[in-house]
């Protein structure tokens, strides 16, 4: 018993329900955070792969050297 006096059964049930709901919300939020972090990491990896592929294509097309030459001229 705390200093406020005895707790009514309905108050205890309401408190327990609120605590359970809060716990469920925390669990869902943690799962969502983990999912978002994983997807962001995957997206970062895909962007890095795309950059590498674009660079490879530019080298194959001979564009990279001409772009460097143009940058040096300016």
Automatic annotation (TrEMBL):
<dbReference type="Pfam" id="PF06825">
    <property type="entry name" value="HSBP1"/>
</dbReference>
<protein>
    <recommendedName>
        <fullName>Heat shock factor-binding protein 1-like protein 1</fullName>
    </recommendedName>
</protein>
<dbReference type="InterPro" id="IPR009643">
    <property type="entry name" value="HS1-bd"/>
</dbReference>
<dbReference type="GO" id="GO:0003714">
    <property type="term" value="F:transcription corepressor activity"/>
</dbReference>
<dbReference type="GO" id="GO:0005634">
    <property type="term" value="C:nucleus"/>
</dbReference>
<dbReference type="GO" id="GO:0005829">
    <property type="term" value="C:cytosol"/>
</dbReference>
<keyword id="KW-0175">Coiled coil</keyword>
<feature type="coiled-coil region">
    <location>
        <begin position="15"/>
        <end position="60"/>
    </location>
</feature>
<dbReference type="GO" id="GO:0070370">
    <property type="term" value="P:cellular heat acclimation"/>
</dbReference>
<comment type="similarity">
    <text>Belongs to the HSBP1 family.</text>
</comment>
């Amino acid at each position: 018993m705390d200093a406020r006096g005895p707790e009514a059964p309905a108050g205890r049930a309401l408190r327990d329900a609120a605590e359970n709901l809060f716990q469920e919300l925390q669990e869902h939020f943690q799962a969502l955070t983990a999912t978002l972090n994983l997807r962001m990491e995957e997206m970062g990896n895909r962007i890095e792969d795309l950059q590498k592929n674009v660079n490879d294509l530019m080298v194959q097309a001979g564009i990279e050297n001409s772009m460097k030459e143009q940058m040096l001229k300016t």
